[in-house]
Amino acid sequence: MAEKGKTGKSSVKKLENNLKAVEDQVLLYAKDLARIFTERKEKDRQIELTKQQLARSARIALLGELAAGIAHEINNMLVPAVGNLSLLLMDRSNLSEKAVERLELIEQSLSKASGMLQQVLDFSRKKPEKREPMDICAILGQSLSLVKYKLTKNQITVENNLLPDLPKLLVDDAQIEQVFTNLTLNAIDAMEPGGTLRIDATNHPEKSAKKQPYVEILFEDTGSGIPPEIIDHVFEPFYTTKDTGRGTGLGLFICYRIIEKHGGTIDVMSASDQGTQFKICLPVS
Ligand SMILES: Nc1ncnc2c1ncn2[C@@H]1O[C@H](COP(=O)(O)OP(=O)(O)O)[C@@H](O)[C@H]1O
Ligand SMILES: [Mg+2]
Fold this sequence. Notes:
By secondary structure, the protein is of the alpha+beta class. It contains seven helices and seven strands.
């Protein structure tokens, strides 16, 4: 009897062990399934993101072409107007003081309009691209010194976290400076006095099948943020939420075109009242 009891106990033990092994296996399968499911979700998210990015870049390219076409036509009309105005002003001895004053006001408006059109045209013409190895920190420093007065006036603090080990990038320094300046000016416009603009740059030297080494530059402000119904449009030419005379809606369009021409990407993340983050990735070649 005792022997039988022992065998029974060991069979139960064996069964328990088997059950445990099955449980472990099921747990492993469950974990595998969860991992596959998460990976699948991440892949779907990436595909959706790429689709959205492609649609956005096609839309911006189309609007850019449209804007350039219109800019070209208006510019053709502006040229004779500016020419005739200059001729009139050259002969100012024949004009009354009031007339000169008015003509000078017209000249100012025309030159503003022409400057705006020129910005659109500059990025549609196929010009030879300047590419030289440049230090991103130096370009950022230059750009911040340009807007220093505005930063101080609006009591904005800049937290600058550019790591010293950043590689030099093959860029047109004047254009990249324009991108940094536009992003900083927009951040200033979006923030109350006391706001902070954080600028980070990190090196991503890893070379994988899909990605080439790149430098990531983040501009993060503590401003009003961008509502979801607006965020999809901010890179479009002439899209502005600012009052007439304060915004042209060209800043981010120009940033987008410059970064695209450098083989990089620019993205925006934001939510109302939670500040805005612009992320630029520039390839290291
Ligand atoms: N940092 C920011 N915070 C909040 N809104 C922003 C920010 N940057 C851009 N925007 C939004 O994007 C729009 C387009 O910007 P931009 O192309 O520079 O044109 P502009 O500054 O002339 O309006 C702005 O009018 C604003 O609504
Ligand atoms: Mg702007």
